[in-house]
Task: inverse folding
């Protein structure tokens, strides 16, 4: 992908290096030169380390390219996110980035942006709605990530045992992870899927769901958690039940807290994402669009694995 390099005067460089500050809508507006394009961002949440890193990637690249970001968060509330996108349209922003709280219901908001001629980009989580058109979707290859998680689980169990999935089906990226996991784990005849339950991607709910799983499936050997908050919630429930070391946990994201638990042997392993790169590539796609180039409809970001043996 060709990139345009622009020499910036010293005063402008100083302005772009300033920290973000709150705007009147409760989001964050980055400092910008007069006349710079403005981009609205509605994240799924700012409470997870993954989205904090994705936000940092967006902000770093926006400073380099000279764009203003207005960052908000739906905090898993689809109605709240609709209001945020509506406000972006009222403010006549130049582009919108959304990490949908609900992959299907977000379509109406995308269509409203299309009607206002405001380009929409999705980051990490795709829209699955038939409504509206997204310029580009930037995310991890989550089907591949699910397959890698299944390979970790099969290795952790020695090729046999019952496993459960802590899911979040309203989110397209999670559905892709689960799809990859299911297909890959099916290739290990000795491993069977005992249950798939939603924990909504939240640690506190994952604790409760895991407690129920331990009661209903006393012979459970492993659990695949679709993010690290779920993995850490499952770990808390397993520890409380006195089953630490008896149930293998495979997570997703490889946040610092999860990595520490992996190194300690409490979690078997994680799929690694690169949220900063997702943020950076999202801004690059917007930059290309602003400059008359056509970014790819889907921009995949590679995933890896993190285990106790990872340096």
Result:
């Amino acid at each position: 992908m060709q990139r345009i390099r622009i020499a910036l005067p010293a005063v402008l460089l100083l302005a772009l290096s300033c920290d973000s500050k709150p705007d009147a809508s409760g989001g964050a507006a980055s400092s910008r030169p007069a006349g710079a394009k403005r981009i609205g961002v509605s994240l799924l949440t700012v409470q997870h380390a993954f989205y904090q890193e994705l936000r940092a990637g967006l902000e770093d690249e926006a400073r380099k390219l000279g764009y203003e970001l207005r960052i908000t968060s739906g905090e898993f509330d689809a109605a709240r996110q609709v209001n945020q996108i509506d406000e972006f349209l009222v403010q006549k922003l130049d582009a919108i980035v959304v990490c949908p709280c609900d992959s299907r219901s977000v379509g109406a908001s995308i269509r409203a942006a299309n009607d206002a001629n405001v380009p929409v980009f999705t980051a990490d989580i795709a829209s699955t709605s038939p409504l509206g058109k997204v310029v580009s979707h930037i995310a991890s290859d989550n089907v591949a990530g699910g397959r890698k998680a299944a390979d970790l689980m099969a290795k952790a169990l020695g090729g046999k045992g019952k496993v459960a999935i802590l899911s979040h089906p309203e989110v397209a990226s999670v559905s892709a992870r689960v799809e990859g996991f299911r297909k890959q784990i099916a290739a290990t005849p000795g491993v069977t899927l005992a249950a798939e339950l939603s924990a909504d991607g939240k640690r506190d709910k994952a604790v409760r769901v895991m407690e129920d799983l331990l009661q209903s499936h006393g012979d459970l050997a492993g659990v695949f958690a679709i993010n690290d908050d779920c993995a850490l919630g499952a770990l808390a429930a397993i520890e409380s039940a006195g089953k630490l070391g008896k149930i293998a946990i495979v997570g997703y994201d490889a946040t610092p807290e999860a990595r520490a638990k992996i190194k300690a042997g409490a979690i078997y392993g994680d799929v690694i994402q690169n949220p900063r790169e997702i943020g950076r590539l999202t801004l690059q796609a917007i930059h290309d669009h602003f400059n008359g180039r056509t970014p790819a409809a889907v921009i995949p970001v590679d995933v890896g694995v993190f285990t106790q043996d990872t340096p």
